[in-house]
Every structure is written in C-alpha cells, then in structure tokens.
Description:
By secondary structure, the protein is of the alpha/beta class. The chain contains eleven helices and 14 strands. The N terminus is likely disordered.
Amino acid sequence: MSVTDQVDTTGAGAPPARATSVLSLAGVSKWYGNVVAVNDVTMDLGAGVTGLLGPNGAGKTTLLHMMAGFLAPSRGTVTLDGTRIWRNPQVYRRLGLVTEREAVHSFLSAYEFVLASAKLHGLPDPAAAARRAIGLVELEGAQDRRIGTYSKGMRQRTRVAAALVHDPQVLLLDEPFNGMDPRQRLHMMELLHRLGDAGRTILFSSHILEEVEQVSGTVQVMVAGRLAASGDFRTIRRLMTNRPHVFAIRSTDDRALAVALMAEPSVTGVELDRTGLTVRAGDYGAFTRVLPKIALARGVRVRALLPEDESLESVFSYLVEA
Ligand SMILES: Nc1ncnc2c1ncn2[C@@H]1O[C@H](COP(=O)(O)OP(=O)(O)OP(=O)(O)O)[C@@H](O)[C@H]1O
C-alpha cells in the first residue's frame, strides 16, 4: 500500500495511523533577479517536529514556499516521498502551510473559516473535516464565535485548523509564535508536539533560538540562504556558545590592562587602538570572572565592558564559518 492510500480523505473520524513521509530538498536554490534567497540547500525531513532557524532574510519563507508548492525552485528539486512538489496538485493535498501573515476574516466564525478551507479542498464531507480540524487545535468551545473576538493565539490556531482540514502529512508553519504571549506559545508548542507525535512531519520557522529550543530537538539552521547547520539542537547550541566572544573594554589604563590580559589563558586575542581595547575570549564565563581581578591587581578601573558580537546574526555567521 502506498503512503497516499493511507491518507484519510473522508474527513470523518480520528486520523488513521499513518506511514511517515519524507520531504526532501536536493541542491535547491531560488533567486529573485540578482538576489539569491536560497543557495544550494539539501535536506531531508521526516516525522516529528523540526525547527527552521535563521535571522531575518535568511531565506526561511522562500524555502517554506518552495516546500509547499507555492514557488518553483530556480535550481534543484523538492520532493515528497520521491514525487516532485512543483505543479503537482496530488502532492499539494498532502501538504499544509500556515503563512506568516494572512488575514482571517473577522466576521466569520472559526467553523465557517475552516469549513471554507475544507470546501476549497473539495473534501467529500467538509463539515466533518472542519469539526475534526477544530478539535485538533482545541477550539471547539469558541468555534461559533466571530474570529474578530479571538485572541491572537486563537486566530493562529484557526489558521492551523484551516491548514490541517485535509489531514495533510506535512505541516509547514512560518513564524507561528510571532506576537503570542507565553501562554499562547505553550499551547501552540503542545499542539505541534501532538501533531509530530502522531506521525506528521512538522516544520516551523523562527528567528528566536530559545523558541526553537523549547519546541524541537532537531533543527535546520539557515544563514544568508545557505544551510549552516543541521541536526541535534544541543550539539548546535554548544557550537554557538563555544564560539569566541569579542568585548570592547574602556578603562582608566587600556594599555596596562591589555598587557595583563595577554597572559590570561581565557583570552585569545587583544587589540589596542585609538578607540580603545578589544579582547577576544574563548570562554565567556571565565573571562568575565577574571577581568575584575586582573584590573584590581593593576590598579585599573574598568569603565565599560561591552560584548560586541552578541547579535543573533553574529552567532549564525560564526556557525557558517565554523
Ligand atoms: N519576491 C521577492 N523579490 C525579491 N527578493 C525577495 C523576494 N522575496 C524574498 N526576497 C529576498 O530573499 C531573501 C530571503 O527572504 P525570505 O523572506 O525568504 O527570508 P526569511 O528568512 O523568511 O526572512 P524573514 O524572517 O524576515 O521573513 C531576502 O534577501 C529577501 O529580501
């Protein structure tokens, strides 16, 4: 029996036990004129929840849209269980996408909104499919209220239900946690876990490290269109935290402090110029603990200690260079 045969397209009852699907990208690039948005990305995604992490402009949305069949790759192939996705409506039926920004009509109820999505998919029993999808996101209690009266989290769950109405094996979500408060986030995280545990392939994008860490053990990291790292989150996190840290230091005697710091094992580089002292340290904790002691011993007062490269972009850039 093929994977397609096992999909419950009746829209009724509990989802069946499913075979897992593999979404594969092979040498995928996408360019818009001179802008290379995605650059030679190869990855395989199986059942469970995977985070797609990267700073703004890294190419996450472009990648998700190619996976969902919204965009053609400029080069390479995107396949689901070996079948090309682009211009293949049979495969679209097995995919769901929750886009980053999309208006939900505030005058409709969640039930009406999800029902419309079921009808667009041409499901045989749209009403049953809508009820099942609303049950999956636990919105039954509010399904007949106008969406205009919902919280941000409820609106987002309504959109997830609309994307799940045809019971797809793969669910792609672009920045699903944006603008949610902690409680709404938790609820959405639990939902994604439940869907992943039930055998679906779930990929969600985010530019927030901690967010991905809380939701998924597996991560694909994109930087400037390229896949910078992929696999177990903890291993990648260790790579990120073990990177050299750069500090700008302002003190009453930068020269004396520079000489003293050169002998310090946690310091890997010292630069002194007209603007002040720049220090590279391998171990963030060890360096920040030892600096006040060294300064005190030399009679130097530290006026400012500024980490120079703490932005997410610099963390990601380090990964690309590693
Ligand atoms: N339609 C388009 N025409 C031209 N350039 C585009 C288009 N869409 C995206 N880009 C460019 O492609 C690159 C990747 O954009 P994309 O939206 O995929 O990144 P992202 O990681 O999703 O970013 P964000 O988190 O800000 O949404 C960016 O440089 C962006 O400006």
